[in-house]
Design goal:
Length: 185
């Protein structure tokens, strides 16, 4: 285990088992449809790539980037850096995939932006759901795990840009984030 991690919440094995179950649910919902998985960068790149490889029906992929500057573990103002092309949005059924649904601000803003640009439907799929921190009324259509209010890293989730490459999800030692400024995406 990495020395900055206090404890592991989900091992590599737990993660892949959880993703297999969600991939099966997603497959049944989208079977027979034209649809696109929209991965929210950077955090969901690892989750999205494991998820799509367990979905055995045709799909397309697109990417959107969003980030918020905060004090490292608390969110600040949201910036959308780029969206899919117009023809990847208009008239499309989109599954917006993110690493974590926390306050809900990122998914809420992105979902509304995609709908206002002409998407037919936008569903949401998150790797982690932290419902205790929700500020907006938004429940994910699909989620792998629920977590309590604790800052977690690994498997795509970062603190100040680091730890995304850990193959498991773990809680950071408070001493690591207590005196650091960070950016979240
Ligand atoms: P929101 O508050 O739901 O808009 O989530 C904003 C973003 O904050 C997520 O996409 C994550 O990148 C990041 N985030 C929220 N909670 C955590 C966490 O516990 N660890 C790492 N990143 C987080
Ligand atoms: Mg993110």
């Amino acid at each position: 285990m990495h020395r900055d991690i206090e404890h592991v919440l989900f091992s590599e094995e737990d993660i892949l088992k959880g993703i297999e179950a969600v991939a099966a649910e997603v497959t049944e919902v989208y079977r027979g449809q034209d649809w696109t998985v929209v991965s929210v960068l950077k955090g969901s790149c690892i989750f999205a790539s494991d998820l799509v490889r367990r979905i055995p029906i045709p799909l397309q992929m697109a990417f959107v980037a969003a980030h918020s500057y905060g004090d490292g573990t608390r969110p600040g103002e949201l910036h959308v850096d780029f969206l899919p092309n117009e023809d990847e949005i208009q008239g499309c059924n989109l599954l917006l995939v993110d690493d974590i649904l926390d306050t809900g601000r990122t998914m809420f803003a992105l979902k509304n932006e995609l709908l206002s640009r002409g998407a037919t439907e936008v569903k949401t799929c998150v790797f982690l759901d932290k419902p205790s921190r929700r500020e907006l009324r938004l429940e994910p259509d699909f989620r792998v795990f629920e977590v309590r209010d604790e800052f977690v890293v690994g498997y795509g989730l970062d603190f100040a840009g680091r730890y995304r490459n850990l193959p498991y999800v773990g809680a950071l030692k408070p001493s690591v984030f207590e005196c650091t400024q960070g950016e979240r995406s």
